[in-house]
Amino acid sequence: MKLRLALCCLAALCHSLVASAGPLEEQLTTYAAAAKIANPAFAGFSAARGEKLHTTRFALGKPDTPACTTCHGSDPRSSGNTLTGKRIEPVALSASPGRYADPAKVEKWFKRNCNEVLGRACSPLEKGDWLTFVSSR
């Protein structure tokens, strides 16, 4: 009887944790599943890899946007500027808590920015790493 009660409590706790997961956590879960399919050895996202992606200069994208830092700056807690001078809110979750609430918007910006900076779509691993990086700041 105690085991049954413990199992019911554990099931209720797991259900509440899944139900309370926000949009960012849900996106990370989706990216993790896709990363695992692409590479069965996938062991989780890395803020360090995300930071490297954010700061690396790429040669295959648009020449005027070789890195994420071109527009977003090197400190994700600070605002950035587009090439036309329009202000961009900080990408760090600590500075812009509601920034990743809409998965469709997140995907829209990944599509645009990855193509402009990397010259290709970002992989689920890259998306998850970058989101992990900005979530840690």
Give your account of this protein's structure.
This protein has one domain (22-135): Cytochrome Bc1 Complex, Chain D, domain 2 (Orthogonal Bundle). Helix content is 54%, strand content 3%. The chain has helices spanning 2-19, 23-38, 47-55, 69-72, 103-117, 124-135; strands at residues 80-81, 87-88. It has a two-stranded antiparallel sheet. Helix 2 (23-38) runs antiparallel to helix 6 (124-135) and helix 3 (47-55) crosses helix 6 (124-135). The longest helix is centred in the first third of the chain and has 18 residues, at 2-19. The radius of gyration is 18 Å and the shape is globular.
Short account of what is shown:
The protein is an all-alpha fold and 137 residues long.
Spell the H/E element sequence: HHHHEEHH
Span of the ends, CA to CA: 46 Å
CATH topology-level name: Cytochrome Bc1 Complex, Chain D, domain 2
The order of strands across the largest sheet is: 1-2
Full CATH superfamily name: Cytochrome c-like domain
Q: What is the CATH C-level name?
A: Mainly Alpha
Overall number of strands: 2
Defining key terms:
137 residues; mainly alpha; Cytochrome Bc1 Complex, Chain D, domain 2; 2 strands; 54% helix; globular
Give the SSE map:
Blueprint: H1 2-19, H2 23-38, H3 47-55, H4 69-72, E1 80-81, E2 87-88, H5 103-117, H6 124-135
